[in-house]
Protein backbone atom coordinates (compact mmCIF):
# COMPACT_ATOMS: atom_id res chain seq x y z
CA UNK A 1 0.00 0.00 0.00
CA UNK A 2 1.29 3.47 -0.93
CA UNK A 3 1.25 6.27 1.65
CA UNK A 4 -1.13 9.13 0.85
CA UNK A 5 1.43 11.95 1.23
CA UNK A 6 4.12 10.82 -1.16
CA UNK A 7 5.38 12.40 -4.40
CA UNK A 8 5.12 9.21 -6.47
CA UNK A 9 3.72 10.18 -9.86
CA UNK A 10 3.01 6.58 -10.78
CA UNK A 11 4.40 4.56 -13.65
CA UNK A 12 1.55 2.17 -14.39
CA UNK A 13 -0.54 2.18 -17.54
CA UNK A 14 -3.45 3.65 -15.62
CA UNK A 15 -1.25 6.69 -14.87
CA UNK A 16 -0.08 7.16 -18.45
CA UNK A 17 -0.59 10.76 -19.56
CA UNK A 18 -1.62 12.06 -16.16
CA UNK A 19 1.75 13.62 -15.40
CA UNK A 20 2.07 15.68 -18.57
CA UNK A 21 3.47 19.12 -17.90
CA UNK A 22 4.73 18.29 -14.46
CA UNK A 23 8.49 18.42 -14.28
CA UNK A 24 10.54 16.68 -11.67
CA UNK A 25 11.38 19.11 -8.88
CA UNK A 26 8.78 21.62 -10.12
CA UNK A 27 7.30 23.32 -7.07
CA UNK A 28 4.74 25.99 -6.24
CA UNK A 29 7.35 28.72 -5.86
CA UNK A 30 8.65 28.06 -9.37
CA UNK A 31 5.11 28.08 -10.72
CA UNK A 32 4.43 31.42 -9.02
CA UNK A 33 7.64 32.84 -10.49
CA UNK A 34 6.64 31.58 -13.94
CA UNK A 35 3.17 33.09 -13.54
CA UNK A 36 4.68 36.42 -12.50
CA UNK A 37 7.09 36.33 -15.44
CA UNK A 38 4.19 35.53 -17.77
CA UNK A 39 2.20 38.48 -16.40
CA UNK A 40 5.20 40.80 -16.75
CA UNK A 41 5.85 39.67 -20.32
CA UNK A 42 2.16 39.98 -21.16
CA UNK A 43 2.15 43.56 -19.88
CA UNK A 44 5.35 44.37 -21.78
CA UNK A 45 3.83 43.02 -25.00
CA UNK A 46 0.67 45.08 -24.45
CA UNK A 47 2.77 48.24 -23.99
CA UNK A 48 4.86 47.49 -27.09
CA UNK A 49 1.75 46.86 -29.18
CA UNK A 50 0.18 50.11 -27.95
CA UNK A 51 3.33 52.08 -28.79
CA UNK A 52 3.48 50.59 -32.28
CA UNK A 53 -0.23 51.17 -32.80
CA UNK A 54 0.16 54.82 -31.77
CA UNK A 55 3.08 55.26 -34.18
CA UNK A 56 1.15 53.73 -37.05
CA UNK A 57 -1.88 55.90 -36.30
CA UNK A 58 0.30 59.03 -36.15
CA UNK A 59 1.97 58.11 -39.45
CA UNK A 60 -1.40 57.53 -41.12
CA UNK A 61 -2.66 60.87 -39.79
CA UNK A 62 0.40 62.67 -41.22
CA UNK A 63 -0.18 61.02 -44.60
CA UNK A 64 -3.85 62.04 -44.52
CA UNK A 65 -2.94 65.61 -43.60
CA UNK A 66 -0.42 65.78 -46.45
CA UNK A 67 -2.98 64.39 -48.90
CA UNK A 68 -5.62 66.91 -47.81
CA UNK A 69 -3.09 69.74 -48.08
CA UNK A 70 -2.26 68.68 -51.65
CA UNK A 71 -5.96 68.45 -52.57
CA UNK A 72 -6.57 71.89 -51.06
CA UNK A 73 -3.66 73.43 -52.98
CA UNK A 74 -4.87 71.88 -56.23
CA UNK A 75 -8.43 73.12 -55.63
CA UNK A 76 -7.14 76.65 -54.97
CA UNK A 77 -5.14 76.57 -58.23
CA UNK A 78 -8.21 75.42 -60.18
CA UNK A 79 -10.36 78.15 -58.60
CA UNK A 80 -7.76 80.83 -59.45
CA UNK A 81 -7.66 79.60 -63.05
CA UNK A 82 -11.45 79.89 -63.26
CA UNK A 83 -11.47 83.50 -62.06
Give a description of the structure.
Residues 1-36 are annotated as: Disordered. Residues 26-36 have a biased composition (Acidic residues). With 83 residues, the protein is an all-alpha fold. The protein has a domain at 28-82. It is built from one helix and no strands. The protein has one helix at 28-82. The longest helix is centred in the middle third of the chain and has 55 residues, at 28-82. The radius of gyration is 31 Å and the shape is rod-shaped. The N and C termini lie far apart (105 Å). The relative contact order is 0.05. The model has no long low-confidence stretch (mean pLDDT 83).
Largest sheet, in brief, is: none
**Shape, please?**
rod-shaped
- Secondary-structure element sequence? H
Number of DSSP helices? Answer: 1
> Could you tell me the strand content as a percent range?
under 5%
Instruction: Give helix % range.
Output: 55-70%
- Rg over alpha carbons: 31 Å
**End-to-end span in angstroms?**
105 Å
Give the averaged pLDDT, no decimals: 83
What's the β-strand tally?
Answer: 0
Low-pLDDT residue intervals, each spanning 5 or more residues: none
Structural class: mainly alpha
Region (Disordered): 1-36
Biased composition (Acidic residues): 26-36
Task: Provide the descriptors you would attach to this structure in a database record.
66% helix; 83 residues; rod-shaped
List the helices and strands and how they pair.
Elements (H helix, E strand, L loop, with lengths): L27 H55 L1
Amino acid sequence: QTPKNNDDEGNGEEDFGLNVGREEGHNEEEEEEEDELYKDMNEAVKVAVQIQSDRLRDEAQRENDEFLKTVDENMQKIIKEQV
